[in-house]
């Protein structure tokens, strides 16, 4: 199994677990004399099976991510870098949005509001981060589709 396939299955199981949680809640109680729409015992067996598979997948994915190297860095390191670049980009874009918003003045007597940074310079930095993030994500995706899952 390729790493990308395992990641896709993990995401599917996580989505199905959220749905199963709702189904369990909906069938936890019934009015006296009524039957639940679904058998809670069967739903709990399904929960156990899904969690067992999820645990196996997460273990194998983590082992694989630790073993796969690209340019001397493990996949785990690449994923951490991607997450931090993504967070940096989000914060920087919000900051630049606030810094570049014009404040209208209705008369010369009103206080002028000025940006604390040169927006153009910071935008170049954001563009460089965005490019690095895009290229890193492409490399991670390529590794996901070419790497076999550790057994």
Q: What class would the helix/strand composition place it in? A: mainly alpha
Share of helix among residues? over 70%
Task: Count the domains.
Answer: 2
Radius of gyration: 25 Å
Q: Order of strands in the sheet with the most strands?
A: 1-2
SSE string: HHEEHH
**Largest beta-sheet characterization:** 2 strands, antiparallel
Supply the number of helical segments: 4
List how many beta strands DSSP finds: 2
State the low-pLDDT regions, or none.
none
Instruction: Give the termini distance in whole angstroms.
Output: 9 Å
How much beta, percentage-wise? under 5%
Tell me what the structure shows:
Helix content is 70%, strand content 3%. It starts with a helix and ends in a 5-residue tail after the last helix. It is an all-alpha fold and 151 residues long. Helix 1 runs antiparallel to helix 2 (40-67), helix 1 (3-26) packs across helix 4 and helix 3 packs antiparallel against helix 4 (119-146). The protein has two domains: 1-67; 70-145. It is flat and about 75 Å long. A hairpin with a 2-residue loop joins strand 1 and strand 2. The mean pLDDT is 94.
């Amino acid at each position: 199994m390729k790493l990308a396939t395992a990641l896709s299955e993990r995401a599917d199981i996580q989505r199905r677990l959220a749905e199963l949680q709702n189904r369990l809640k909906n069938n936890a109680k019934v009015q006296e004399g009524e039957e639940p729409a679904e058998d809670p015992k069967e739903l709990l067996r399904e929960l156990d099976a899904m969690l067992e598979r999820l645990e196996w997948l997460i273990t194998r994915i983590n082992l694989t991510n630790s073993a796969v190297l690209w340019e001397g860095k493990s996949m785990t390191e690449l994923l951490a870098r991607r997450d931090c670049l993504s967070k940096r980009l989000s914060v920087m874009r919000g900051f630049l949005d606030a810094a570049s918003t014009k404040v209208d003045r209705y008369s010369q007597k009103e206080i002028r509001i000025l940006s604390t940074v040169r927006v153009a310079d910071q935008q170049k930095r954001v563009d460089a981060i965005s490019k690095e993030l895009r290229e890193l994500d492409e490399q991670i995706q390529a590794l996901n589709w070419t790497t076999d899952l550790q057994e």
